[in-house]
Design brief:
Jelly Rolls; 5-stranded antiparallel sheet; 27% strand; binds manganese (II) ion
């Protein structure tokens, strides 16, 4: 009997560890993005008001021009842009890179990411919890996978031409935490003594990094 219980517990743990966004409980649940109701996702819009427009988006069709220090720009196509994605557990992004542009180290707390190179050649990688860097050069037509929650990056290898990728996620809202921005530009700020010890640097360096990373207004 105890073996059966143990097996049940193991199965429950395994299925839990593969869990992603919850499965839908109805055909469609188009997000009501303006509702004040808080649920795990968005409440459903009245079925009578649902139309094809709720499942359509053309915002990834054209290359976007990054005009920031990193030289990369992420254009999301998540539930906020496509309300019909609500409860379906998938979304896309397009990432455009300037020559030598970097999508700096970040994580997606709620999704695995799979990228397909549209243009150019990139050096990509993720770091495991055992602190091993898994990296590769990928070019037009190639695919690379960043496992859920792990820190990863992409860098345009070419100093002269732009690059672009299409990213798919197993979440309607994967979420992004950019490591440097999270630590150095949060509100309120992470205390200096946390950063000076964590990075083994002085207060002056902390201030320098903060001022360089904080968006100019
Ligand atoms: Mn990513």
């Amino acid at each position: 009997m105890s073996i059966i219980i143990a097996l049940f517990v193991i199965c429950a743990m395994v299925s839990g560890s593969f869990a992603s966004d919850p499965d839908p409980l109805q055909d469609v649940c188009v997000a009501n993005l303006t509702s004040g109701v808080k649920v795990n996702g968005y409440p459903c819009k009245n079925a009578g008001n649902v139309s094809a427009a709720d499942f359509f988006y053309s915002g990834l069709a054209k290359a976007a021009k990054p005009n920031n220090t990193m030289g990369s720009l992420v254009t999301p196509a998540n539930v906020e842009k496509i309300p019909g994605l609500n409860t379906l557990g998938v979304s896309l992004s397009r990432i455009d890179y300037s020559p030598s542009g970097l999508n700096p180290p970040h994580t997606h707390p709620r999704a695995t990411e799979i990228v397909f190179v549209l243009e150019g050649e990139l050096e990509v990688g993720f770091i495991t919890t055992a602190n091993v860097l898994v990296s590769q050069t990928i070019k037009k037509g190639d695919i690379f996978v960043f496992p859920k929650g792990l820190v990863h990056f992409q860098k345009n290898n070419d100093a002269k031409v732009p690059a672009a990728v299409l990213s798919a996620f197993n979440s309607q809202m994967p979420g992004t935490q950019s490591i440097a921005l999270t630590l150095f530009t949060s509100t309120p700020s992470v205390p200096d003594h946390v950063l000076t010890t964590a990075f083994q640097i002085g207060t002056k360096e902390v201030e320098k990094i903060r001022s360089k990373l904080t968006p100019k207004k």
